[in-house]
Design a protein that fits this description.
This protein is α+β, with helices and mostly antiparallel strands. Helix content is about 25%, strand content about 25%. It has three helices and five strands. It has helices spanning about 1-15, 35-45, 125-135, and strands spanning about 45-55, 60-70, 80-85, 110-115, 120-125. A five-stranded mixed beta barrel has the order 1-2-3-5-4. Strand 2 (about 60-70) and strand 3 (about 80-85) form a beta hairpin. The longest helix is centred in the first third of the chain and has 13 residues, at about 1-15.
Length: about 140
Amino acid sequence: MKLPLCLAAIAAAASASPAFACAPPPPGWVPPTHEQLIERFTKQADHIVYGIIAPSAAGDRKSMLKVLHVYKGGLRKGYTIEGTASFDLPVPHCSGMMMPPDEKPVGTYGVFALRGDSPELNMIKPEDVQLMIRKGWIRSAQAL
């Protein structure tokens, strides 16, 4: 009889505690749609570029992103940005409570969003890049 109670107590103690969970949203809060999230990230990004992850000379968690095409911002083709791989866009809710994102392997191609002087390299999924082009938030590289 005591064993089931003991097991229940252990299970309760091992379950996720509120300290590690996201705070509940305020009453009446309606989460933004996926399209609204992508539009917000597009507008907030200072630079949106297509590039490839190159080896970092430092050999640490830093990545080097070589710019191959600029969709938005003042960077130029051939420019190299040192940064750290971050979450893909849209960034998961409560991402600060999660494990750090995996590094992007050398040779990874894709579209990345950058904000200000932040070293975070946020990769944008191809279907979201197509949405951004379709909505006119960025211009297709093929239209140039």
